[in-house]
Amino acid sequence: MITNQNYLPSAGRYDTMLYQRCGKSGLKLPIISLGLWHNFGGVTVYENSRMMVRKAFDLGITHFDLANNYGPPPGSAEENFGRILKADFLNYRDEMIISTKAGYNMWPGPYGDWGSKKYLVASLDQSLKRLGLDYVDIFYHHRPDPETPLEETMSALDLIVRQGKALYIGLSNYKPDEAKKAIKILKELGSPCVIHQPSYSMFNRWIEAELLDLLEENGVGCIAFSPLAKGILTDRYLNGIPADSRAASSSIFLQPEDITEEKLVKIRRLDELAKSRGQSLAQLALAWVLRRGRVTSALIGASKVSQIEDCVGVINRLEFSDEELNLIEDILK
Ligand SMILES: NC(=O)c1ccc[n+]([C@@H]2O[C@H](COP(=O)([O-])OP(=O)(O)OC[C@H]3O[C@@H](n4cnc5c(N)ncnc54)[C@H](OP(=O)(O)O)[C@@H]3O)[C@@H](O)[C@H]2O)c1
Prior knowledge:
This protein is about 35% helix and about 15% strand. By secondary structure, the protein is α/β, with parallel strands linked by helices.
């Protein structure tokens, strides 16, 4: 239990974190951002979630990423984050970048999913209520909708910005051809796409083929989600599956069978390399995602305060030699 109700953030919170410009926008993001997909919902211990948000902020993490459906149950991560904001961060709203999203199933009937204007506007209004905020900093369309005209989805995002309910627009999980069209429409509407949120890690390199070039050409930032492959690219599973890990939990997003022997062989070798560089495997994985400066921020998840501290330690060793990069290619082959 936290006894000190009056949270005073660390005075040194901006001393060591690095901030990168998000594409060609005015927005800067910390190189490590914290996502609230797991471990912040109604089924988790509130005080642990609260301590993680406090620790992140103390370490210079200014960006917190949510979505309408984060929980479980859906909506509860936003509710809990709203509670934490009210308890600890009322004086610090202007130091925070808070994002949310809509695009996955949220409520019954034809208006609670995908990408219609009806769904996006209603969903953000619900999110703002749960968060206790007047506006979010970034509002994302969470995934492309194959049926709704892209013009409608983009004009809903433009409307939301014009209404002042979000400052910046983001896209998530859009493939290069979809992103290209959406970015063009948003530019024409006068509310540019500021950020794209794709998955990216040593084990998941799809954005390297086309998407990163497209984003750079269009001045759009990139925040990479699941940079630790949901925990696989850490020391978590080096010696079996811990009882308190995501793979052992009821989350359907990481199952014990995802921790394959093939991956274990790789992470053991990567762990050796990390040790030779004087860093943890998680830090190595994050430094690698950030290695060319094309990814604005690595969007981590965490279940413990100590994991956030460890991840932020990446700032002590970001650079790679050519030999190290070649060795990583060899290991990942
Ligand atoms: N846009 C989208 O469609 C989408 C999809 C997925 C995620 N996201 C965003 O990305 C965020 C991050 O996703 P993610 O949680 O899958 O990211 P991740 O960073 O790849 O994995 C996080 C997990 O790794 C483990 N971990 C973290 N730091 C560690 C450390 N230093 N040492 C050992 N283990 C460590 C923890 O596992 P344990 O829990 O087992 O301790 C933690 O829950 C989400 O919260 C969400 O904001 C977006």
